[in-house]
């Protein structure tokens, strides 16, 4: 029987001999694997691999920038980053814009969100 589609990854694995050397092949799945949904499994695998979502990277940058903030220009640049952060993060993680007047409060809020 001839294939009707191109299995590029399968062909590469077959040609390199790695198709039969897959880690964990023939072993049962871990107990916790079936207790979580697909997204939760992805999150765990991504976290274990060291992946950090863009919005979390940006959150850390904003926190560092807030601690170094000294002028209105710094505030403007930070607020632009906050607006970008709010567009890509989950809704409960969105933050308010900052000003020189509420800078001390903003430091506390951003510190608690990066821990």
Automatic annotation (TrEMBL):
On the tree of life, the source organism's domain of life is Bacteria
| Descriptive protein name | DUF1992 domain-containing protein
Q: What's the source species for this entry?
A: Bacillus mesophilum
Stored Pfam families: DJC28_CD
Which segments constitute the DnaJ homologue subfamily C member 28 conserved domain? 17-67
**Matching InterPro entries, A to Z?**
DnaJ_homolog_subfam-C_membr-28 (IPR018961)
